[in-house]
User: What shape does this take?
Amino acid sequence: MPVITQIADAVVATLNAATLSQSVAATRAYLPRAEVADLKTLKVTVVPSSVVNASASRSQSQQDVAIDVAIQKKPGNEQNASFDPLLALAEEIGDLFRAKRLETFPLAACIKTEFKTIYAPEHIENLRTFTSVLTLTFRVIT
Amino acid sequence: MADLLAQGAAWLESQRTKHLTTTVTYVRNDEQIAVPATIGRTKYEADDGHVVQIEYTDRDYLILTADLVLGGQVSEPLRGDLIREGPREFEVLDWRYSDPYRMTLRINTKHVGAVET
Assistant: This one.
């Protein structure tokens, strides 16, 4: 199995084992696709994003593996009180991985967390749906 | 002098309502009302975000302005209201008047699933 999918699976396992402010049932997908109707419940999707290969030394190679985590839900209304917990969850997920190694794939250490889209205003405007995408970058030296 | 165009538009709207409508339920919070509506447009689209893709059915309803009576008075649609058509539920996202005389509302909705019982 490619390293990036092993890391994505380890991210899914970490998310599903974690105690967060909201119950999370993350899944891995190549093409994360949902219908608006499916987003009445929280959807967390882990998507392999990119790999950058480099030499770490004469004998070691380094891979920076980016994994996207999409957090999506259609709240009942557009009040801040509905969106705030979702943004808080996105932050919590970032904190869960920041500067840590993955338990089920300890070769990978998280070196960066970045909100590619802290939230998508167009999804709120056009679909009344919250979408946040967090990119986790893991470094693997072998 | 009578406004013939306005009279003609009113007649056309009455014909549309009489012959080209289906009864839907318009819902706002705990209130609901049965209104005749014409299904104006239905599209299936996908919002292709950077990482995630959301698919949705877009649907317009034409409803007489005078028919949308909520809380005892004629009301304008509000974002988040629901339109139930049979077992399916559509959420109001936007609306505008469909004609220059403001006789008909064109209400833009998106399918949000089955009616919850």
